[in-house]
Amino acid sequence: MNAKFKSPFSGDVTQAINPWQWWGEQWGNNSASLINITNYKSDAPATEATIIQEVAGYGMQLGRIIEALEAVVEHLPANALNKGQKDAVKQFKDMAKKIDNAKKQQQIQKVCSGNIDQLIASLKTLKDEDKPLYDEVSKKIKAAL
To answer: Which range marks the domain in which residue 21 is found?
Structure first.
């Protein structure tokens, strides 16, 4: 299991939490326990762990896949798909929109969770990185004041 801790707009900070591994490491290896618990099935768990820790976590990987697939879907001719495929594309677009909305809500919560100096710094960063979301947050702040 990984616990993620982030300061506003600081990027991913990941802490691997695996008490079974910690227990095994006391003996100098990771095989001292009678059972091995993992959160995923993989033919190459060491490779999987390296990718997650050094390249990109599952969320980032999924985000890139969604972005790429959205670009492809936008260029599909409408008459090239049958009904089932059109339904699948619609479901994908709906899911991608829900994911985007959830990410925006998390970003808004991060902006609003710190002290005033952190809030100001976060708003400046947000303005540079995501102007439409900055405008949305600014409207909410102005409405509250």
So the answer is: 1-55
Q: How many whole angstroms from its chain centre is CA 128? A: 20
Question: Sign of dihedral through CA atoms 134, 135, 136, 142?
Answer: positive
Domains contained in the chain, number:
1
Please, is 108 exposed, middle or buried when counting C-beta atoms within 10 Å of its C-beta (0-12, 13-18, 19+)? middle
Q: What is the pTM of this model?
A: 0.47
Partners of 3 in the beta sheet?
A: 15
Residue 97, domain member (yes or no): no
Which residues make beta-bridge pairs with 77?
none
pLDDT digits (tens, 9 = 90+) for 108-144: 777 666 667 777 888 899 999 889 999 998 999 899 8
7 in a structural domain: yes
Long-range contacts of 128-134 (CB under 8 A, 24+ apart): 129/9, 133/104, 133/107, 133/108
Asked if residues 126 and 112 have their Cβ atoms less than 8 Å apart, the reply is no
